[in-house]
Design a protein that fits this description.
The protein is mainly alpha-helical. The chain is built from eleven helices and six strands. The protein has three domains: 53 residues, 434 Repressor (Amino-terminal Domain); 101 residues, no CATH class; 45 residues, no CATH class. Helix 3 packs across helix 4, helix 3 packs across helix 5 and helix 6 packs parallel to helix 9. The protein is elongated.
Length: 237
């Protein structure tokens, strides 16, 4: 039995696809624009090629115009790559990891505790890691899992919460139903109450947090206490 060479096999596949109306090549311009958008977000050619399961050279040749056309199958795989981290990638964009750590800070979880849970040396190293444009996929995944565990539980550090919210950091509720890993995503402030029922601004210095994590308006608490003291000091008729 005669064995086909690689070139003969590719030629037969090409003729078969063309005969059956299957696109063999695609316009590289949309693919190039998509790759450039990903790179604008901070992704490297290596991250993109690993996400598409192809060589970095193929991606580079599409970007610099060396390839006047691209194989349709490769074009589809490249267009399917987006900002979301994939296990096949060594590195991921760090912005989602940073937002998760900051959201947990805004819930009262101290960075030192989070660093210890993540088996990272200390909080300073953790902060340095998440401020980089890219982070190892394994670290991103560990932060993702920790966030899923703690995001609906108030942390023990009230001072951590106050400092985080004074810096404008958004708690997990602000990211509900929003892709926290998307570089262009914006948290929803509407998901967080800005004022209490008596229209007092719920700024970080006007929030009381009970031992169970319940938040209430500090100004309303003062008003109730003053009213209670007046009743106690008013002589009975």
């Amino acid at each position: 039995m005669t064995r086909l060479t690689d070139r003969s096999r590719q030629q037969k596949q090409y003729l078969w696809r063309r005969a059956n109306g299957i696109e063999v090549f695609a316009d590289p311009a949309p693919v190039r624009a998509h790759i450039q958008k990903l790179m604008g977000w901070g992704m490297t050619l290596e991250m993109i090629s690993q996400g598409a399961d192809c060589s970095g050279q193929a991606v580079r040749f599409i970007v610099d115009g060396t390839f006047p056309r691209a194989k349709a199958e490769l074009a589809q795989r490249l267009l399917a790559v987006d900002h979301r981290p994939r296990p096949s990638q060594w590195f991921a964009l760090a912005i989602g990891a940073r937002r998760r750590i900051e959201a947990l800070n805004a819930m009262g979880w101290q960075s030192q505790y989070l660093a210890e849970r993540l088996d990272i040396y200390d909080r300073v190293r953790l902060q340095l890691m998440i401020k980089q444009p890219r982070i190892r996929y394994t670290t991103w995944h560990a932060i993702h899992e920790l966030y899923e565990e703690l995001s609906d539980k108030p942390g023990p550090g009230r001072n951590t919460m106050v400092r985080a919210r004074n810096r404008g950091l958004m708690p997990p509720l602000a990211w509900y139903d929003i892709d926290i890993d998307h570089p262009a995503a914006i948290p929803s402030r509407a998901a967080i109450r800005s004022h209490c029922k008596n229209n007092h601004a719920l700024s970080p210095d006007n929030i009381l947090i009970s031992s169970t994590g319940h938040q209430s308006c500090r100004e309303c608490h003062r008003i109730r206490n003053r009213a209670s003291r007046r009743r106690d000091t008013t002589p009975a008729a």
